[in-house]
Amino acid sequence: MRESVQNINDQRIGKTVTAEFLLQTCTGPELKRLLSIIGWDEGLQKHLESISSGRNHISPRARRALKSVEKGSVRVLTIRDYGARGLGGPEDGDEGNFVQLCRHELVTDESTKKVRGGSFGLGKSVLWAFSDASTVLFSSMPTPETGSKVKPEEARFFGRSYLVSHKLGGKSSGKWHHGDGHLGKLQNEGAGVEWIVSVRGQSAIDHVENTSLQRDWKIAGTSIMVPFFDDPGLEVEQSDKEVIEGIRHAIQLWFWPSLAEGFLTANVGVRSRGGEKFETVTLPQWAGLYVRALENGQGIDKVLGDGGSAQGKIPVDVKKRVEEPKLARASATALLAVTRLTEDESDDSNIPKEIRNSVALIRGARMAVEYLRRTLPGLLPDFVGVLKAGEALGSTPSDVALDALLRDSEPPAHDRWDPGFEKVRNNYERGAKADLQTFLEAIGQRSRDLLGMKSIDAGQKPRELAEMLSGGKSGGPKNRQETYEVTSKDVDRSNPARVRTKLKVQRNKGTVRWRSGIRVGVLDEQGTLRALEIDPASVKPFGSNGIALVIPADDPRTLEVTCEAGVSSFEVECDGIIGGSTTARYAMADVHVKCGVVK
Predict the structure, then answer these.
(1) Single pTM value for the model
(2) Which residues, listed in sequence order, are joined to residue 519 by a DSSP beta bridge?
(3) Helix 288-296 × helix 240-261 angle, to 10°
(4) What DSSP assignment string belongs to 246-310?
(5) Dist. CA 271–CA 24, nearest whole Å
(6) Helices (H), 102-210
(7) Domain locations in the chain?
(8) Which CATH architecture group holds 457-599?
(9) Nearest alpha-carbon partner for 283 in 257, 307, 309, 263
(10) Which candidate, 158, 243, 336, 553, has a CA 20 to 30 Å from the CA of 278?
(11) H/E segment holding residue 358
C-alpha cells in the first residue's frame, strides 16, 4: 500500500486523485478469461512448470500458482487510479512512465524527480513480489501530450513477468531462458528482430474487456492487475475480508495526511459476478489527535496536562545539493506538534499502537514516512506527535531544499529518514549526514521539552512498558522496583540479506539480577514484528563484564542477555537474517526488547 498509493499521489494531475483496490477470486468463466489475458496457455504455464521444478527462490511460489489453477480458483488484486498521468511515453528509451514501470530494470527517470515522492524506483518490485506467478499486467489511459481530453487511440495494455533463469524442454534438447517475459503485441523489426510492444487503442480496450483491467477510458490513469495475489509474509492465507481490512488500515495509517488534505480519495472493494462493490476509506477518528496537536498547540510551548497540545520549530541546516537538480545551501525549519493523551485515550484500543508515543514524519509527499521512536527519550507520557517538514510545510526555497534532502535520505521502502543512506553522501556537500542526524535527534529532544518532561521520574514510564514488566497485566503493582529503557537504538538494512541492530539498554531502578530478550525483525503493514533468526556470529557485546548472552536452541529468534545485579546497562550488536524474501527486503525493520528480573 505504501508503494502503490505513494506512486498514485506522485502522478496526480489535478487537485484530487482516486485510488481503487479491488479484490477478486476468479473461478469458472472468470478464471478462463483471466488465464487467456495472462497468456497461460501461450507459454506462462510451461515456464512456471519449469521454474517450479528447479532450485530457485521463486519455485515454491510457482508451484502455488500452478496448484491454484488446478483447483480452479485464483485470487487477483487490481489497483486503479483516476486523475493521474498514466503510462505515457515511447515503447523504449530513457524517459516516460511506461518504460520506467514496465521496461526498465528498477530505474527512475531523473527528469521527473521534482514531481515524484520517492528518490528511487526500486519499490515497484513489490508488485511482482505479491504475485505467485511473478506477473503483473497493466492497462492505462495516458494524459494527452496536447489538449486536455484523453484520446482512445492512446489506450495501452502490457504485462511483464519477472522470471529466473530456467530451462524449457528436455535435458538435452531444451533451451535456457534468461530474463523476463512480456505480454503484448509481437512486432517484427526486420532482420530477424522481434519483440513485444504494447497493445494500443481500441485493441487494448477490447483486450481487457470483462476483466478487472477494464476501466473508465474517459479518465486518465492506470490499472494494475496482480494475478495469483498472495502475501508472502503470511503463513496462513487471509480471507477476503481480512485482506480488505488490511488494505484499509494501511491506507489510513500511512496516508491520513493525504486523506485529511482532501487530494486523495481511496476506495476498497470486491469484484464478483454481481459486479464491483466499493467502500470509501474514511479519515480515521484517531487522526483528530494530529489535528488537535497542530491546531490547539499554536502559540503554546509546553503541554499543560492530559489532552493538552504544544508545538515548536526545529531549525535544519541543509547543505548544498551538488547533483541535478542542484540546490543552494539553506537554513530550513520544521514544525513539531504534540498532544498528550487523556486517560480515556490511553485506554482506547481503536488508536493504533503504531502511532502511540511516536512522531509521524511528513514531508511533501503527504505520507507518514515513519512513526519515529528511535530518537525519542524514554519514559515519556502517553502522547502523539507530528512533524511537518519540507514542502509539507511550505514552498519557499528552503522548504524545497529540505524536502529534497529528506527524499534523498529515504531508502527504497520510503519508511524512514536515514542519514547514512548513500544518496545523502553522493548528492550533497560534506556534512549533510551529520546535519540530518542532528535534526532527527532534535525531534526527540524537542518532543521532551514540549511535553514538559525536562526532568523525568520513574513513575512516568510509558503504559506499554509498565504492562510488560507486570507480565502484560494492566493491573500490575503500582510501585515497581525495576524500571528499564532502551536509551539508544540503531537499525541498519543496508545489507538486503540481513537486518543489523545496535542498541543500549539501561536499568534505571533495581538491584537484582535481570534479563532482556531481544528480537530483530521486519514489520508487516499492521505493524506486527515478524522476528528473524539471529545470526550467532553477529552477536557482539560491549562492556561484557557481568553479562551473559545466549540464543536458546528452542528459540533461535531471541537473543537473551542476562545481567548480574551490579550491571546497570549493556550495549550489544546482532543481526537478523532476512534470507531470500523479496518482500522482507522492502519491509520496515525494528528491534523489540523485553526486560524483567531473573526469578
Answers:
(1) 0.73
(2) 592
(3) 20
(4) HHHHHHHHHHHHHHHHTSEEEEEEEEETTEEEEEE-PPPGGGHHHHHHHHHTTT--S--STT-EE
(5) 5
(6) 125-129, 201-207
(7) 19-237, 284-456, 457-599
(8) Sandwich (2.60)
(9) 257
(10) 158
(11) none
Residues 325 and 404: their CA atoms lie apart, in Å, by: 9
Rounded distance between C-alpha atoms, residue 129 and residue 26, angstroms: 20
Query: DSSP 3-state assignment of 384?
Result: strand
Q: For the chain, 599 residues long, give each residue's pLDDT as a single digit of tens.
A: 888 998 899 899 999 999 999 999 999 999 999 999 999 999 999 999 999 988 777 889 999 999 999 999 999 999 999 999 999 999 988 788 898 888 876 434 333 333 333 333 345 678 888 999 999 999 999 998 776 789 999 999 999 998 888 888 777 778 888 778 899 999 988 888 889 999 999 999 999 999 999 999 999 999 999 999 998 777 788 999 999 999 999 999 999 999 999 999 999 999 998 899 999 999 999 999 999 999 999 999 999 889 999 999 999 999 999 999 999 999 999 999 999 999 999 999 899 989 999 999 999 989 999 999 988 887 788 999 999 999 999 999 999 999 999 999 998 778 899 998 889 999 999 999 999 999 999 999 999 999 987 543 333 334 444 444 444 444 443 444 567 888 888 888 878 788 999 999 988 887 788 899 999 988 765 566 788 999 999 999 987 688 989 998 878 899 999 988 888 899 999 999 987 666 666 677 889 998 888 76
Asked if 140 and 182 touch (Cβ cutoff 8 Å), the reply is: no
Contact 597, 516 (CB under 8 A): no
Residue 481 · residue 507 · CB < 8 Å: no
